[in-house]
Design brief:
Keywords (chain B): Endoplasmic reticulum, Glycosyltransferase, Membrane, Signal, Transferase, Transmembrane, Transmembrane helix
Largest sheet of chain A: none
Radius of gyration of chain A: 24 Å
Order of helices and strands of chain A: HHHHHHHHHHHHHHHHHHHHHHHH
Strand content of chain A: under 5%
Largest interface: A-B, 38 and 40 residues
Transmembrane segments (chain B): 110-132, 144-161, 173-197, 229-251, 298-318, 348-375, 387-405, 437-460, 472-495
GO cellular component, one term (chain B): endoplasmic reticulum membrane
Structural class of chain B: mainly alpha
Helix content of chain A: 55-70%
Pathway (chain B): Protein modification; protein glycosylation
Strand content of chain B: under 5%
Shape of chain A: globular
Subcellular location (chain B): Endoplasmic reticulum membrane
Oligomer: heterodimer
Order of helices and strands of chain B: HHHHHHHHHHHHHHHHHHHHHH
Chain lengths: 542, 506
């Protein structure tokens, strides 16, 4: 909430002196961060998902077992499947946890959730978010280049700070559903900010650390690799912007490689030494899961599945298909775990991998041919995240945050990106709604979503009021369509009698509808990245 | 950014805080046999749903008045009736006569919390929005900040959404009354205020300023001419609105008398629990309740209250103005809270409402008062298990008001409205200067004190000889503050000339 608050902080600052205004993130950032943290604390008593038990179990495993057993332990079904740094992180947390409630650190105490445990785990998320807050402050400094005398709430730094700190997805996924995405995203944002600040080595180090916390960030590794190679290892360009091969610096490549490799060695070294690497890797990459996660993420495969379903229904209606031969999937159950395609060819993990790589490739090549500084890198990173979200295997709907958070940075720098951001953030966040399905949390998710959306739309619109409209009428109409869709899925449908027989319909509808928006913004982002940007203007902005 | 979206954000944020607080425990949760205010409200739904109107206020086999008998005016009863109807539709067990006593379930809690939210959304929140946006000659940013602060006031949120009551309804009606009066819609104002009175008899705390302001307006219009006519119209409106609220009970005198007996239980003593008023604080050293007969207690408290409110009321009647009216509301409500008979700790909310209305006129003192008022309810909140919610909402409020409201940087006499007072003091004591740093210092000390006492009440175990040590400390601490605030507000009231024309006007 920041917004009204900021309004006055601004007016106060201007009256008492522009000390904090000059530095870009002065008093208002701290105030905002404390306020947001306090508001997060209000979510302490809310519902938490099985992920809460997952992390409690990991606390117990890393605390009570020797390292050699971490990746073998399987008392609980929620086995450790994050890279070693995250295990060490849990190990450290457990050091504190033992003073709070030692019972939570016993591996056999399945589904243990005493009040102290809940308090401890929830607070650990809020406290580790300090890293995220710091990263956000660094990002705000990167966009605050222009000297403008605008009101605080129209400053890019302020808008970005709210967009990041009050990110709806992080709030509900971390502080209600329960996960530690906050500080992980913090590391990612910090490494992006370091690239903006030309501290490339630090950035590479941070990203390597990040990869060893959660391997989902591998999706954006191509952008890092390419950017480091092209803009750091090659120190010069030809006048036409193409790479000057002579300028290659082996020293830089070596030092980069050394940094990254030593981080990996630190993380995986012990397991290599123990001869457990295959076991660790098999835990990290479980390809046994289905194409789509329990709730379909709004990506290409959701659309693919829906087309398949539609075709099979039409086929049966037109008697082109024999109902007996159609493999009916497990779709009629509440959770769509595995889905058998009846008309279209079934999708293999390999196929998704190829699709993902193909979708990422043009953006990475573009980064090679026209690096365009950190902005170009950021664009490529977002495209990598979105590409893997669109075509990846067993994608979680939460993975959309990987694209939304970096896109927030771009959104405050250009009107075009702001428009894309609004579509992507709104649809992406809306698709997170099924994560929280309990009645008391319904008002919370709606309110949080409204706060974020109202703020992002009105703040970005006010920021770019001199330029063209951010959203075309089709986009506006599409986004407004989310309101009736949400009302139908969350309120109307559960009251009808179909809810018992066909509980998956709301999920299907919302992921299908959101998939359109995500695909659309992905395509638009791709087009704007590949078409020639007025780079002169971009440079001025930085 | 447009004012409109900022206001929407403020309201959404306030709703978010309200709903998250409501996820916490309520008063008397899982505490048989009597439970708490939550059960009282549920029980009223059960009674009003199952019994005919004539029996609502009477003791009978189906309506044991000893068990949370209905002791609020008819509008509360109708509200309970309405909620009872909906509850019956959703789940008949919730309001089954006698069988539903002490009913608790997650669904039911959700339902009850939702009724509070709906009432708040219909009555209180729109009133605050209208109030804040009708303040003329104030920049829109200031409107937003006062909207934000008033809506985030933790006391009301904690009592309504945590402890469980419907204070926002009666306070909302009273606020609509203030709004109507400031638009000079005198009839509408008195009509709406009658609703407030008929929802909760505690609104009597606000009734004197309403009466005096309207009377003053009539006197200004000329007691023989238009003023008399206005007085007549207002009188008819008040009687008509009361009659409207009391229709089902007007058939027999016994009904009316019984309702009144239920509303004003004089036999319940000077104060209950630990209240931050003068009597309770005095009894720490001087056992008022034992030393004086209950009749003389009644007279004593009546006399003190009267003496305390009379000056404000007379001045308001002589020179009625909207700004003065708001300050008179503060003075009277605070006097009633401090001196009157049978005061609950929650009654401080009746003072907080008018104080939050002057948050733009006296930002520092209002914020301070609102913080202390929330703090004064700490023993109650601790009993309900709302410590966490109390700490968080208070810190949020402190943070928001600190960054939104214009902080008087140098504590000049002007900035805390004491200039006229200081000028008149200087006539006698020419060396007199208001020590600005002292006020800032005492504000900080007071905050520290509240923090320390909160910590102590939450963590420390009182010595066995003094089991009530911390509640008494909390209430005495708050009482000292309230006396100081009463003094301060009275000074402003009598020295400020409240010129409606030159100053900002609602």
């Amino acid at each position: 909430m920041a917004a009204p608050k900021g309004a006055n902080v601004g007016s106060r600052n201007s009256s008492t002196g522009s000390k904090s205004k000059e530095s870009g993130d002065g008093g208002w950032f701290v105030t905002l961060a404390i306020a947001v943290s306090l508001l997060k604390c209000l979510l302490l008593p809310t519902y938490h998902s099985t992920d809460f038990e997952v992390h409690r179990n990991w606390l117990a495993i890393t605390h009570s077992l020797p390292v050699s057993k971490w990746y073998y332990e399987a008392t609980s079904e929620w086995t450790l499947d994050y890279p070693p740094f995250f295990a060490w992180f849990e190990h450290l947390l457990a050091k504190v946890a033992q003073y709070v409630d030692p019972e939570m650190l016993k591996v056999e105490n399945l589904n243990y959730a005493s009040q102290e445990t809940v308090l401890f785990q929830r607070l650990s998320v809020i406290i580790t978010d300090i890293l995220f807050i710091y990263a956000a402050s660094q990002c705000c400094k990167c966009v605050n280049g222009r000297k403008d005398r605008r009101d605080l709430i129209q400053k890019p730094a302020f808008v970005l700070a709210v967009l990041l700190l009050w990110n709806f997805g992080l709030l509900i996924v971390d502080h209600i559903h329960f996960q530690y995405n906050g500080f992980l995203s913090g590391i990612m944002l910090l490494s992006i900010a370091r690239l903006y600040q030309k501290r490339v080595m630090e950035s590479a180090f941070l990203f390597a650390v990040l990869l060893n916390f959660k391997h989902i960030y591998l999706y954006i590794a191509p952008a890092y690799g390419m950017y480091m190679l092209r803009s750091y290892c090659f120190t010069g360009n030809n006048p036409d912007g193409s790479v000057r091969w002579r300028s290659f610096s082996c020293l830089r490549l070596l030092s980069l490689g050394l940094t990254v490799c030593s981080v990996f060695a630190l993380s995986f070294g012990p397991f290599v030494y123990l001869g457990q690497l295959p076991q660790v890797l098999s835990r990290l990459f479980p390809f046994k899961r289905g194409l789509c996660h329990a709730y379909w993420a709004p990506n290409f495969w959701a659309l693919y599945n829906m087309v398949d379903k539609a075709l099979s229904i039409i086929g049966v209606k037109l008697q082109l298909l024999d109902p007996a031969t159609i493999r009916t999937g497990t779709m009629t159950r509440g959770l769509v775990q595995e889905f058998e395609h009846s008309v279209l060819p079934s999708v293999t993990p390999m196929a998704t991998l190829v699709c993902t790589l193909v979708s990422i490739l043009p953006s990475v090549l573009r980064l090679w041919r026209k690096p365009q500084g950190p902005t170009g890198f950021l664009r490529c990173l977002i495209l990598c995240a979105l590409g893997s979200f669109m075509f990846g295997w067993h994608v979680h709907e939460k993975a959309i945050l990987l694209a939304i958070l970096p896109l927030s940075i771009l959104s405050v720098t250009s009107a075009k990106d702001a428009g894309i951001f609004l579509v992507l953030a709104t649809t992406g966040h809306f698709s997170l709604f099924p994560l929280l399905f309990t009645a008391p949390e319904l008002p919370i998710k709606v309110l949080l979503m409204l706060i974020f959306t109202v703020f992002s739309v009105s703040a970005l619109r006010a920021m770019f009021q001199r330029e063209r409209a951010l959203l075309s009428w089709v986009e506006t109409l599409y986004l407004c369509g989310l309101v009736p869709l949400g009302a139908f899925c969350e309120v109307v449908y559960p009251l009808t009698s179909w809810h018992q027989q066909l509980p998956f319909v709301p999920l299907l509808l919302s992921s299908g509808y959101c998939a359109l928006g995500v695909t659309y913004s992905w395509a638009r982002l791709y087009i704007s990245a590949l078409s020639d940007l007025p780079s002169a203007k971009q440079k001025k902005n930085q | 950014m447009e004012t409109c979206s900022l206001a929407a954000l403020a309201v959404l944020l306030a709703l978010y805080v309200r709903w998250t607080v409501s996820l916490g425990p309520y008063s008397g949760a899982h505490k048989p046999p009597m439970f708490g205010d939550y059960e009282a409200q549920r029980h009223w739904q059960e009674i009003t749903f199952s019994l005919p109107v004539k029996q609502w206020y009477f003791n009978s086999t189906d309506n044991n008045l000893q068990y949370w008998g209905l002791d609020y005016p008819p509008l509360t009863a109708y509200h309970s009736f309405l909620c009872g109807q909906i509850a019956h539709l959703l789940n008949p067990d919730w309001v089954a006569l006698n069988a539903s006593r002490g009913y608790e379930s997650l669904q039911h809690k959700l339902f009850m919390r939702a009724t509070v939210l709906v009432a708040d959304l219909i009555i209180y929140i729109p009133a605050v929005i209208v109030y804040c946006f009708c303040m003329r000659e104030i920049p829109s940013k200031k409107k937003i900040s006062s909207l934000c602060c008033i809506l985030l006031y933790p006391g009301l949120i904690l009592i309504d959404y945590g402890h469980f009551q419907y204070n926002s309804v009666s306070l909302g009606f009273a606020l609509w009354g203030v709004i109507a009066l400031s638009f000079e819609w005198h009839l509408l104002g008195s009509f709406v205020f009658c609703f407030a009175l008929n929802y909760k008899q505690m609104e009597l705390y606000h009734s004197l300023p309403f009466f005096c302001y309207l009377l003053g307006r009539c006197l200004k219009g000329g007691i023989t001419g238009r003023g008399l006519f206005l007085l007549f119209k207002i009188g008819v409106t008040v009687i008509a609105s009361f009659a409207l609220c009391w229709i089902p009970f007007l058939t027999e005198t016994e009904q009316i008398l019984q309702v009144l007996r239920r509303l004003f239980p004089v036999g319940r003593g000077l104060f209950e629990d630990k209240v931050a008023n003068i009597w309770c604080s005095l009894s720490a050293i001087f056992k008022v309740k034992k030393m004086l007969s209950s009749e003389s207690q009644l007279y004593l408290s009546f006399l003190c209250t009267l003496l305390s409110v009379l000056p404000s009321c007379i001045k308001l009647t002589m020179q009625p103005s909207v700004r003065r009216f708001k300050f008179a509301l503060v003075n009277c409500a605070l006097s009633f809270f401090l001196y009157s008979f049978q005061v609950h700790e929650k009654s401080i909310l009746l003072v907080s409402l008018p104080v939050s209305l002057i948050i733009n006129d006296a930002p520092l003192i209002s914020t301070w008062f609102l913080l202390v008022s929330t703090f004064s309810m700490l023993p109650l909140l601790l009993k309900d298990g709302l410590l966490m919610a109390y700490i968080i909402t208070t810190l949020v409020f402190l943070l928001v008001s600190k960054s939104l409201l214009p902080a008087p940087e140098n504590m000049s006499e002007e900035s805390i409205n004491l200039k006229p007072f200081c000028i008149s003091v200087r006539r006698y004591l020419p060396w007199f200067r208001l020590p600005g740093y002292l006020i800032k210092l005492s504000f900080c000390t007071s905050l520290m004190g509240m923090a320390a006492l909160t910590l102590a009440s939450a963590v420390l175990v009182p010595p066995p000889r003094l089991p009530d040590l911390f509640p008494v400390l909390v209430s005495s601490f708050s009482c000292v503050h309230f006396l100081a605030f009463l003094f301060y507000f009275n000074i402003i009231y009598f020295w400020d000339n409240f010129n409606d024309k030159s100053k900002k006007k609602l």
